[in-house]
Structures are given as C-alpha cells and as structure tokens.
Design brief:
By secondary structure, the protein is α/β, with parallel strands linked by helices. The chain has 14 helices and five strands. It is elongated, with a radius of gyration of 25 Å. Bound molecules: adenosine-5'-diphosphate (ADP) and magnesium ion.
C-alpha cells in the first residue's frame, strides 16, 4: 500500500494525486467496513483530491488578495448591534452587490465590527470566484506614494481599479495630503467608470471626509460618485472589544469607596 501511495512509479504520484495518496489508506478502510460500491469508492476518492485542490487554490487567492483572517457572518453577534439591520447584511452576503457594482460603506466608531463585516463580504466574494483585494487606506496611499515614476503610479492605480471587489479599510485614521486625496478620488472615479464594487469602512461621518481628504470640493465629488450606487450601513453601538469590560464600565451599583480606591484600607 505504501509503495502504491508514495513510490515515484505509482500512478498516484505520476498523476500528481498527492492528497488522494495521503487519504487512501483511510478511504480504503472505510470502504471495507461500509462495503461501499466501486462507484461510491471512486467518487469519494476523487472528491478528496478535488476538495483539497480547491482549498489550495482558495488559500493562494486569499493570500494574493491580502485578505485578513477568515471572518464570517455566522460568527457575528447581531444582537450586540441592534442598530445594524441583519436582513440588509444577509442580503448583501448574497453578493448581488458585486454584479450591480454597488458599493458598501460601513460607518461607525471603533470596535463595532466594520472590518469584520468587510472581511466577511470579501471572503464570500473571493469564494464565489470574484477578483478581490483588501487594503487599508493607509497602506494604499503608502503604496501609491512609493510608486516614484509616473508610469509606475499609473500601473498601481490600474491594479487597484481592476478587482471586482476592493476593500478600503479604516478611512479616517490618516489625513491625506492634497496629492494623496487627488489619487484616491481618481481611484474611486476609475472604479465607478469601470463598474467595480468598493467596500469602505470609516469611523468618520461623511461630513468629516472633506477634512480627511484635505479638500471639501474633492470630497463632495468623491461622495457623489460613491453614493450613486451604494448601500450605507451605519453602526451606532458599543465596541465589541469592550464587551468583556462592560461590567467594569457600567457598575451595577454605585461604586463603594473601597472599589474606587481598592488599595487604601
Ligand atoms: P471595527 O473595524 O469597527 O473597529 P472590528 O471589526 O475590528 O471593529 O471588530 C473588533 C473585534 O471584535 C474583531 O475581532 C471582530 O471580529 C469582533 N467583533 C466586532 N463586532 C462583533 C460582533 N457583533 N459579533 C462578534 N464579533 C464581533
Ligand atoms: Mg476596523
């Protein structure tokens, strides 16, 4: 059996069926115990190889897309954020927003799950076969700044304009200089013209984007393009990161002097 799975002369090795080679002893044991038909056995054996290959391709694509660790809607506690419409989120997870090149804007203070939701949508899009790329705004402008020559910069802009889904996370942590603001406007414009979806997250309201981009007129032109086809999800709730600390932040009774100054007798 070992020779069948590992030796170079083995047909499994020659056909590059590495995963099947590893799984074969177990598959054969199961087949003997369950007395499955030849057809079922062959189907199961090939399915093991196909599944492992799909996983490998997905891993490579997720790395190329710079996706953060897998986040899912199943792991998202909607009861913790009543201001967020679960129905709207689940509908977006159906991914029709990609086909209609509709953008998603997630607004809210830190820790409310904006990046979690953006990453969940991006993972779903990637798994569905859509080209996807994930970046923070800071990393994006750093990358564009680093492109010294004009043709390199054009190439980088085309790179970000291309994917069917582009996530631009954390708008609001960096103020842009006029050149950076102009480049981000060009990118949003190019994606609008090329009909690609943007997923943006920001801890700043739209009214504050003028300050972020360093130019009110530019910000209003950008918002005009963006909001023409966009779904805006505003999350007005507590930070999930503070969840464990909520009892400390909101004591169930007024603090006693000992609780306020525990080290003083
Ligand atoms: P934001 O981007 O809004 O600052 P994150 O999405 O980074 O917040 O969320 C902070 C952490 O809390 C992450 O680990 C995220 O997975 C988790 N989280 C946030 N909201 C929820 C939620 N409603 N249910 C489950 N986990 C959540
Ligand atoms: Mg975030």
């Amino acid at each position: 059996m070992d020779a069948f799975c590992a030796e170079t002369s083995s047909p499994l090795v020659q056909l590059g069926l590495r995963h099947l080679g590893q799984a074969l002893p177990t598959l054969l044991d199961e087949a003997r115990q369950q007395q499955v038909s030849y057809e079922t056995f062959l189907y199961r054996a090939l399915a093991v190889e196909a599944q492992a290959r799909r996983q490998r391709v997905l891993l490579h694509r997720s790395q190329a897309a710079h996706l953060p660790a897998r986040k899912t809607l199943e792991a998202f506690d909607f009861s913790f954020q009543p201001s967020l419409s679960e129905r709207q989120v689940r509908e977006l997870a159906g991914l029709s927003f990609v086909q209609t090149a509709t953008s998603i804007v997630l607004l809210g203070p830190p820790g409310v799950g904006k990046t979690h939701l953006a990453a969940s949508f991006a993972w779903l899009a990637l798994e569905a076969g859509y080209s996807t790329f994930f970046t923070s705004l800071t990393a994006l402008v750093e990358d564009l700044d680093a492109a010294g020559r004009k043709d390199t910069l054009r190439r980088r802009l085309r790179f970000y304009a291309r994917p069917q889904v582009l996530v631009m996370d954390e708008i609001g942590y960096t103020r842009l200089n006029p050149k950076q603001g102009q480049l981000i406007f060009e990118l949003v414009n190019a994606r609008y013209a090329g009909a690609g979806s943007l997923i943006l997250t920001s801890n700043k309201s739209f009214a504050e984007w003028g300050l972020l981009l360093g130019d009110e007129v530019l910000a209003s032109a950008l918002l005009d393009r963006l909001l023409h086809r966009a779904e805006v999800l505003t999350i007005n709730g507590p930070s999930y990161r503070m969840k464990e600390h909520v009892p400390l932040l909101q004591p169930p009774h007024p603090l006693t002097p000992k609780e306020v100054m525990p080290h003083q007798a």
